[in-house]
Amino acid sequence: MFSLHLRAINLKSIMNKMKPKSIIIVSTLTLFFFTACSINQSDNFQITKTPPPSQPTIDQPAETIIPSLTAPAATPPPTATLKPPLEKKAWMEMPIIPTNASDSMREVYELGLAMGNDPRRFSVIRDCQNVSSYFLLTFDKPGDFRLGAYADLQPTIEYYQGSFSRTSLAVKGGFNAAAVLSPLRADPKTCNKGESPLDCELRIWKPSEVFVSMETWWSKKPAQEYDKYMRKVIERLLEAGVVPIIATKADNLEGDHSINATIAQIAYDYDIPLWNFWAAV
Length: 281
Hints:
By secondary structure, this protein is of the alpha/beta class. Helices cover 31% and strands 8% of the residues. It has a four-stranded parallel sheet with strand order 1-2-3-4. Strand 3, helix 7 and strand 4 (274-275) form a beta-alpha-beta unit.
């Protein structure tokens, strides 16, 4: 499973290197990489050069596991471990794509299978930059893309068919880490009364993995507030037996990269995969 979901992350990283048959793909990629949808925030990105490749200061086991439709015995979900803070700029040197799966995430995956999560489904929790038309949709349309040198990713695409183009109930313009936890922001036509967008998406789609990338934030709110709500999101996913794949953001609207540093610290504390999208752009 982890070799599959780590390769699935790579799909988005190589999309701008493909030669798609449709110009629509090019335009949506441009929108994804270079537009913002934050509320009451500037649209000016600070694009940073990719740092030289090096390894993060996070110890992770190298072994991977293979998905199984047979649910193993459930175990309690892991929680954050008290660890020393990462160095201020450590996140900048972390790889774009995580390469290893931790033992704790194996436990989360097994717990999810026992709870009925589907190993062939993933979900997305994010703001407008992850609506399906901007994020991965083309991989649910055979013939609309060519993998070229990345042909080995075809089994991953086939494995997760149906998830690439699905409209997540936890994705909406202006969503942030607090909004996805609020029942007031849930779709009243689809979600139960008192159910948050996050819980609604988990209940209906039953994913085994979730991409989490909340770029929208209040520009004057400190990173500590972002940290508080994002940890609640991560803990809810782990409780539901879902493996979170958390992503850094491309911009630096806060001015000191404190949000990306916070995201990396959360990934470190919970031992979850980090997709360093900032390093890619």
